[in-house]
Each structure stands twice: as C-alpha cells, then as structure tokens.
Amino acid sequence: MKKIYVTLITMLVYCVSFGQAGVIVGPSEICFGNTASMTDSIPGGIWSVSMASLATISTGGIVTGVSAGVVTISYAVGGAVATHVLTLDPMPTPTSGPSTVCAGSTGTYTCGTPGGSWSVSTTAVATIDPATGVLTGITPGVDVISYTIGVGCAATSVVTISATSAPIVGSTSACLGSTASLSDPVPGGTWSSSNPVVASVDAYGIVTTHTVGTTIISYASTGSCGAGTATVSFTVNPLPSVITAPTFLCVGASAPVSDSVPGGVWTTSSSAVLSISFLGSVTGVSFGVATITYVTPAGCATTAAITVTPALPLITPTVHYGVCNGGIDTLVATCTGATSFLWSPATGVACSSCGGITTTTSSSDSMYTVTASDGFGCASTATISVDVNRIMGHILYGSGMPTVPDTKIWLIQYNPADSSLTALDSTVSCMDGSAPFYQFNDKVSGDYLVKAKLLSSITGTSDYIPTYGLSNAHWDTATTIFHAGGANTQDINMIYGTVPSGPGFIGGLIVMGAGKGTSGEVPAPNLLVYLEDASGNVLTYTYTDASGAFSFSGIGYGTYVIYPTDYKYRTTPSDVITLNTTTSSYTAVDFKKHTTLGTITPFAIVTGVNQLPGSAVLTLSPNPAGENIQVNWNNQPNGVAHISFTDMAGRVVYNNSINMATRSGNVTLQPVLANGQYFVRVYGETINWTGRLTVTK
After folding, report:
1. Beta strand 80-89 with 29-31: parallel, antiparallel or unpaired?
2. 691-694-695-697 Cα dihedral, nearest 10 degrees
3. Residue 587 and residue 504: Cα distance in Å, rounded?
4. What whole-number distance in Å separates Cα of residue 167 and Cα of residue 481?
5. Cα separation of 347 and 668, whole Å?
6. Based on C-alpha coordinates, what's the Rg of the chain?
7. Fewer Cβ within 10 Å of end Cβ, the chain: N or C?
8. Which residues of 547-578 are buried (b: 16+ CB within 10 A; e: fewer)?
9. Residue 292 vs residues 60, 178, 269, 279: alpha-carbon distances, Å
C-alpha cells in the first residue's frame, strides 16, 4: 500500500513540474522599432527573448524590436516551454533622387538599406522599376515613390512630373455674349488670343466673346523641362434671332412660332401649360405662363414667354323654365374666365349683354346663341334651345301647407290602346310663391299621368298620401293629361288621410309570381299599400318590407279595406275588415302580384299568419315583459325564422333571426324597447305567426 501512495505522489509532482505551455500566438515578422503582442492560452507563464540586443519583451508579452535580425520568443509554464520565431526587418533609410522629372524622361532613386522594392502610387503619372529604382515620367502631375522592405517597412518621397506643354482643356466654342473657361495642366503659363475682336482671354483662361467668328487661343509655358505653347481654335457662334411668337394664347388655341436661324430644336418650360411641336407650333393647355426655348444646331438658345389665358371660355348653357321664376324662363351661360357676354337674337331677351344670365318671354320655340369673351380676345359660343313643350302644375295642400313642402312628382305615360303604363321621368318640386310647382319639358305627344308624394310624410300616420292628379289615390281612375307638344297644366290636389286611433292591427304578406299555385312565390318588396275605409276613402299608406310584409297598427275599431297598388297593375282590394272588441287584429290579409296578368288580388298563402304545422305551439314569455323576452316553441319543424317587433305607429323597431335547430326549444332576446304595446311577427320556411306583447319595465 505504501508503494502505491509513493507512485501517486511522484506522478503528481511530475505533472506539476512538466505541464504544457500551450502555443504562442503573434506575428512572425515586424519592423524593428515597432512593437507586437504575443499571447499564450496557458496563463501564469514567463516570457523571454533569445537575444536582448535585437528585441525585448515585457511580462505581458509585448515585443519591441531593437535591431534587425531573428530572435526566438519563449514562454515557460512550470517545466514546459513554448517558442516562436520572430524576424525583425530593418526600416529603410530615406530615399534619394530628383524631386522633378520631365514627362517622357527618367530619374533614378536609391536607398541605403538593401533588399527592398520600389513602387509608385499612380502609374498614370509615372512608372518605376521595382528593382533598379529607375522612374519614367508619363504625364504632368504628382506621384508618391515608396521603397518597401519585408512586411511593409517603407520610406517614401514625392516627385513632380513636368512637361514643356500640354493640350488645352475646355470648350472650343461659345455663343455670342457668353463666356467659356479653358485650362492647361502645365502651371505658370500665359494665355493669349489671336483675334481679341472676336474673343479675348484673361490670365485665368476665361474667354469672353465679342463678335461672331474664329480666333486662336494660345497657352505659352516655361519651366525646368523647357518652353512650349499649346493652341486651340475657338469659335464664337451667332445667337438665334428674337423668337416670333404670340404674347398671349387661349387655352385650346394653337399658333406658329419661328426663328430666323434654321435647324434648331423647340422646348417648353411647362407642357402642362403650353405644348410645342418640333416644327414650332404652340398650343395652350391650361392657365399660366410658360417659356419656350429655341436652341440652334450650334447650341445657342433664345427664349420667349407666352401667357396662356384663363381658358378659352367654356360655356355650359342651361335654361331654367317657368313659374318658379315668376313665370319667366331664365337663360344661364355658366362660364369660367369670361368678362363679357352677347346674346343673339335680342328679340325676347331682357338683356343681350348681361353677364351670362338673362331672361326671355318667348311664346314659341326659340334658339339663342351666347358668345363669351375674355380680356385677351379669346371667345367661344354656345346655343340654348328654348321650347314650350311642357307638362306642369302646382301641388296643392288643402289641409294646410306642410312645414317642409318638398314633393316628388313622377310622370307616367299612358297608352289607351292597351292600357299600358311607362314611368318616364321624375322631379322634385320648387316653390312658386306659396305653392310647390313641377314641370316636365320636351315630352312626346301622348297621354300622361302625374303622381306626387310629400317627401316628409310618415307612413301609417295621419298625413298626406301619394296622390295622382287631379286628386286620386288610384292610377286607373286618375285624370289623364293629353299632351300634343304644347304646354299642358294639371294641378295635383294632395289627399289628406286621417287615421282613427285605437288598439287595432291589420297585417299580411304580398308575394309575386306568375299566379299559378305557391311554388316559386317570392316577396313583393316596396309595394305601396293603402288603408281605406269601407267607402274607399284612403286613410293612410305604407310599403311592404323586404319579406313582402305590411302592417297597420294603432288603428281604431271600424271597417277597413286593404288596397295594394302599383301603376301597372289593376287591384282587387281585400274584403271589408271589421275591427272590434272581439276581433281587434287581422294578420293574414295576403295578396299576390300577378306579373303575367298584371293584377294584384287577395291570395291565400299556404304558410299563412298564425298557421303552425300540426300541434306546434309558439309563445312569448313573460308577457308583459321587461328587459328579456323568451320565444318558446314546441313541435315546430326545424328551420331558421325571422322575428320583428312593430310599435303601435306601424314602425318596425327590432329585427332578428331565430335558429330553430330542435323541434322544441326557446331563445332569449334582449331588444331595446320602450314601455308599450307591440305586434310580434315570427316567419320563415315553416312558420308564419303573429302575436301581441306588452313591455313594462
């Protein structure tokens, strides 16, 4: 056992004494006089150098070159030593040689330190033999000569390459009245002109032109490489003549421009204002000022400014007919940029020179011409046709003028041969004094109906109802206008309907189709529906919604008739409906709009109101209700239904969908409803049900 312990201790001492020293990392060559950093991955070692006369090293591994030669760097850790060979290159002594060499000549450069190589920074200026140091001048300029030993130990000097003369640099021509700049690479020379009457040159090479012609510009230089003179022929070109062009041009108008010097090129400063062709034709594009330039083949240019006037007046002629202007037709010529107007003929025109607006009292069809001009002489014309082919009239409100009397009027052409109707036009009334007025112009001869609707009226309430002229709710009994191309007048006396108030409700559905069975029936939306009393007096009106449903609510006990109407269809009204304390609501007053027959008739829809399949039951709870309303169904075929709430004024205040995914179930709704009575309708593919709900919060 003691022998084993001794062996382990011996091995431990050996490892400590003869451990690894790693690998020295650092440059293998430097210039002496410089420093370099050496490193080793094993810490705690000692640095040393083989020849202290050539280099020194710090405890941190920083080597400083002292003299040229080769040394060994050592790094010792315990008994282990790593080494690295470092070459110390000498710094070359300063070079010697000429500071100036003539272009095309040579000069020799030397250095007292052997073993180096010669180079220059710019071979375009001079070249040098790397071994001999013989430099050859190429072109005037300055170059840097380098003598390099080893890893970049270099000495440098500067040489100037001179020349006797060099070509003159710069433009050899200029336009009369302008200047040009010339230069020469050889410094210190003198400039001169052979014909200073044509062009003179100053000490800096700036040429000033005086007359058209040619002169010789010379540059004489002297220096160490000898004297020389460079010359160039300099031409003074003529300017183009003054451009012949208009000072002002109308938008849309064109004019030629020209110059006496041929062969030049035309340009414009702004093609958005003024365009110009290569042949020299300008066209006004938009209001503004643009400069045109003419450049001769020699490059000489001249300019001219052209003002494009504020548009060749663009006239928008209109005629405002009739009574809404005191019975006088107003002729209007809307025009931008015009300062004067002239109307022709003057007969029947109140003012033939008024600013775009005048009046006429012509009693027959007439044609007028208006000419608009601006201050630059630009003018344009337009014609206005005034005819007396009109259908017109007043809208009369016998039960009191509405606060907002705006009324929409439709013009419907009637063909008595086949009783067909065609909607031709519509307009909104204007005020003629105290009464709204309508007018349709330039209509072909034939029979016509006019229909008016107060735009501010509210459906289902006591208010003015849509009315045909002279005063009829139904198109088929309305008064026809026979129009033969002249002026026809028909007033429309609006019918005022009064709705007796109470708890009653009447509703139903209107579908449309060919009239055979129920297959393929679709809702008839936006169909006008009148509520009439048993004597045929219209009380109020409403329109069917997107599902074809209509309703009248909040009506008193009494006898009523439902009358859907469309101007191309003849209507068979419903039977007389009696509302009383026993039966206060009718919810299956249904109709069909027969698109082939052109009729609207009462119609029994298979899935009528309150019809539930089999023993199906639908209830609302609680009733009266508060914030939440639960819809309960039992034995109802699966499907999606829609639910709507209608207030007593006949307004639909809530819409939603119910997914009846199971035969029996319920869903809770949270409609925002005010306290009061509501009619509730649930309808879909397999159900059409209505009921009443009271809301008390």
Report:
1. parallel
2. -150
3. 11
4. 100
5. 77
6. 54
7. N
8. bbbbbbbbbebeebbbbbbbbebbbebbeebe
9. 79, 20, 6, 13
Q: What are phi and psi of 476, to 5 degrees?
A: -75, -10
Tokens found for residue 361 = 């009292």
Q: Which pair of structure tokens corresponds to residue 288?
A: 């503004």
Task: Look up the pTM and report it.
Answer: 0.42
The structure tokens listed for 128 are: 């040098």
pLDDT digits (tens, 9 = 90+) for 254-304: 899 999 888 899 999 999 999 999 889 999 888 889 999 999 988 899 999
322-334 pLDDT per residue, tens: 656 545 667 777 7
The amino acid at residue 221 is: S
Q: Is the dihedral of CA 661, 666, 671, 674 positive or negative?
A: positive
Cis peptide bond upstream of 313, omega within 30: no
Domains and CATH numbers, the chain: 2-89 (2.60.40.1080), 100-162 (2.60.40.1080), 169-237 (2.60.40.1080), 248-308 (2.60.40.1080), 317-386 (2.60.40), 390-496 (2.60.40.180), 499-602 (2.60.40.10), 617-695 (2.60.40.3080)
From CA 104, how far away is CA 140, in angstroms rounded? 10
Burial class (CB in 10 A: 0-12, 13-18, 19+), 77: middle
